[in-house]
Amino acid sequence: MKKDLHPDNYRLVVFQDTSSDFKILTRSTAASNETIKWEDGNEYPLVKVHVSSASHPFFTGEEKF
Question: Whole-angstrom Cα distance, residue 45 to residue 35?
């Protein structure tokens, strides 16, 4: 296995589904210029996504056009 292949700059990031307003706090290396205040009162980088398990038709059983 190659040395130093995986990033080591993981930090807490909030991902927000813009279709359903679903949010999840997780660790990621994704870059972001936006921040959001989370339920614990701390501010975290915010990454907006268009589709997540909360809005994808495969998981919801509903088709959107």
Answer: 4
The rounded Cα 62 to chain-centroid distance in angstroms is 22
Neighbours of 19 (CB within 10 A): 14
Q: Where are the domains of the chain?
A: 1-47
| Chain center to CA of 4 | 25
Round the CA-based radius of gyration of the chain to a whole number and report it.
Answer: 15
The two three-digit tokens of residue 14, written as one number = 């909030």
Consecutive sets of 10 residues in the chain, 65 residues long: mean pLDDT of each? 83 88 89 93 89 59 60
